[in-house]
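Hello Y.,

Per our agreement to keep a running log of every chain we model this quarter, I'm adding this entry. I've kept the format consistent with earlier entries: sequence first, then predicted structure.
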Amino acid sequence: MLRRVLMRRAYNSGRYEQARHYARLLLGKSKEAELARSIIVRSYWNEQAYEDLIQTALGWDDEFSLSYVHLAKERLNSIAYGRSFSPFAQNRLKHLLENQPTFHTQNLNIRPVQ
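Predicted structure for the entry above:
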């Protein structure tokens, strides 16, 4: 019970390595194993440590872990490493980049500071 509280407290405060430590200690307990695996997987995800996530979670057969493995592989294979956008967001981003205002200094009377 105490390890579970310490694990959750560490995870919620962003101390992911410490949270993984406590989670690994809980993996052997059948009632706590599912939560412990999710903490390990999500902490690697939050740190964008996709290689570590894949290595760790591939040995587990639960659907939650394998879904994150799939997402991590997609992130590693994506062109914009660590970023993935919906088609709508991609089109919007493209539109905004193409329509950025340009700044011309030709018609400005700028004097150097003395």
